[in-house]
Amino acid sequence: MPLLEVRNLKVHFPVKHGLFSRVREHVKAVDDVSLAIEPGETLGLVGESGCGKTTLGRAIIRLLEPTAGSVWLDGEDIAGLSSGELRARRRKLQMIFQDPYGSLNPRMTVGQIIGEAIDIHKLADSPAARQKRIDELLRGVGLDPSHSQRYPHEFSGGQRQRIGIARALAVEPKLIVCDEPVSALDVSVQAQIINLLRDLQAAKGLAYLFIAHDLAVVEHISRRVMVMYLGRVVELADSRTICREPAHPYTQALISAVPVVDPDSKRKRIVLPGDVPSPINPPGGCPFHPRCPVAEARCKTEVPALREIKPGHWAACHLAK
Ligand code: SF4
């Protein structure tokens, strides 16, 4: 049984054009997305900014209310739970954010930030046990326990991300939604945080939904990769297949933009025309057709279904095979 299963999830936001106007349009930020993550697995989720990947992550952990669909965690549908019922389940499901500074309360010490998570779920039965747990968590993410008396602004970006990871780990989750956790960090620090996440996964059997716009980063950590465009899944396969044999023209363009070290590589960059269209009024037929270099006449009218073109390899394109 998958640890997490998302079925036909939709997150649509109403759009009002004036204070008193009626809602006539919706932004379809996430439109009919399904996925599954096994215990201990990392599923990478990539796409340009505005493709709905962060909204999907937030809807999964119920920071946002889904418009439709279900989210199954350990065999239980959590999409319809009340906030009280949800609190107990939150232990299993945590999130780390792109901007660790914005997500850490600047008025609390590191010890208070991590201790708060321990307190909410009553995971320590004495002040000594609580402090011991905080010290262990800090050590586990490569920080010194003496740091627990300091404030977030006293740390570098990479150290703050380590604090965010320690806070997430404080409640012993089974799955962490990692929302662009290294995008704001220097390249050398990115590698350290990715390695830390991998080590923690191996030690604790954690599963990750790893959201990023950078395919090179996602390939490094993920077993399978899912590509989103305008709120929909356009391709899903193991990370090697996505990077070496992408079937969807959008994924092919994303891959072509990843820098290659090999000077003899013949790979040419595919530059897509135009910007991502507005999700308020997405194009009919295949939503990618206005930018697709190989679009045919039917692409303007027929929506391509996400279909399994080879075992474990799914693509939403009429031409994919
Ligand atoms: Fe391009 Fe048509 Fe495939 Fe869409 S369905 S990606 S427009 S070829």
Task: Explain this structure.
Helix 3 packs across helix 4, helix 3 packs parallel to helix 5 and helix 4 crosses helix 5. The strands form two sheets. An eight-stranded mixed beta sheet has the order 6-7-8-3-9-10-12-11, with helices on both faces. The protein has a four-stranded antiparallel beta sheet with strand order 2-1-4-5. By secondary structure, it is of the alpha/beta class. It is globular and about 70 Å long. Helix content is 29%, strand content 23%. The protein contains nine helices and twelve strands. Strand 11 and strand 12 form a beta hairpin. The structure holds iron/sulfur cluster. The site of iron/sulfur cluster has 14 residues, from loops. Iron/sulfur cluster (SF4) binds next to loops.
Write the layout of secondary structure elements.
Elements: E1 4-15, E2 25-37, E3 42-46, H1 53-60, E4 68-73, E5 76-77, H2 83-90, E6 93-96, H3 110-120, H4 127-140, H5 157-169, E7 175-179, H6 187-204, E8 207-212, H7 215-221, E9 224-229, E10 232-238, H8 239-244, H9 249-256, E11 307-310, E12 313-315
Parallel strand pairs: 3-8, 3-9, 6-7, 7-8
Antiparallel strand pairs: 1-2, 1-4, 4-5, 9-10, 10-12, 11-12
